[in-house]
Model the fold of this input.
Amino acid sequence: MTTATDSDARTAERAHGVGIVGLGVISGQYLTTFRGREDVAVVAVADLDVARAQAVARDIPGCRALSVAELVSDPQVDTVLNLTIPAAHAEIALQAFAAGKNVYGEKPLAATMTEARQVVAAVPAGAWLGGAPDTVLGTGIQTAHAAVDAGLIGRPVSAIATWISGGHESWHPHPDFYYRPGGGPLLDMGPYYLTSLVQLLGPVVRVSGASSRSRDIRRIATGPRAGEEIPVEVDTHVTGTLVHEGGAVSTVTFSFDGGQTGAPPIEVHGEAGSLQAPDPNLFDGQVRMRRHGAQDWADVPTGAGYVGAGRGVGLVDFLRPDGGRASGAMALHVLEIMSSLLDAAAERRWVDLATTVELPAPVPLTRFGALVR
Done:
């Protein structure tokens, strides 16, 4: 795992310069995380909507609205934060690496495994690649991770992960990309749950799956395009079985074809008890445990993870001496899990994975606001 870069020396006397490409809905959460920090500074932004980029830049001291080409070559930019749609993830990452920058990107790492492997192979010497989700570095999943590692439920044998909704067109004003290749409930929401399962149970070695599509057209419910119909090009209900390296077996469901679910987001079952982990799309939440023979579930005290973290903590973590937990290797492995699930569903067979990832130890309980040089 890479934990230091040549850019560390260049930025010893200034904040680490971040250039953001893509200023859609998710960018606001990253900007909130970085605002007021001493260790990172957003120095440039770029977007297909030039006016939007200019408006964002005006609100950030020292930030400039640039073209993508200008941003990736700018000497003040140490890391390119890639918040574009999935179909553009690989293109932007490759441009940034060609300019010698670090890259931290939104999930998934790329729209396909072929593109993702190209991105990983292009990381220049002295640079690093990181990727969302970094919600798993918060106190929720990290406390669960520490509890499993400590043997509180004994040897893990199985897990269940469930995410069900009626589809993002109910709230997103421009949901088209969720229904194109690189989207769908698996590639959109799966990274949160699958990254968590890998954190809890280790890498995945093989998968099987099934998938379906309830309809070919979706109707936007909100915003300036309300009532507009958009085509569905991907399966919108995916279920699968994952066999982890240590022998534990996970079952997962991701769907845009339901309403809601009352199931816990993640349950892990071990020889000595069971554990419930909170929503992995959030940074915190209560972990609960019930050991064999206990009369009820008990709260597990918060004992690991970044306290008060927000989207972007994974990028900041790379700047720490022991950081780099939201790694490109993890993002690549999770993307292969998802790609293999879809292949297994289409081909009605088990699929063996070629990638793996070395798991970092749980994040020590750390107040995120204290993470400054």
Remarks:
- The longest strand covers residues 156-164.
- Residues 1-12 have pLDDT under 50 and may be disordered.
- The CA atoms of residues 202 and 246 lie 7 Å apart.
- The two ends are 21 Å apart (CA to CA).
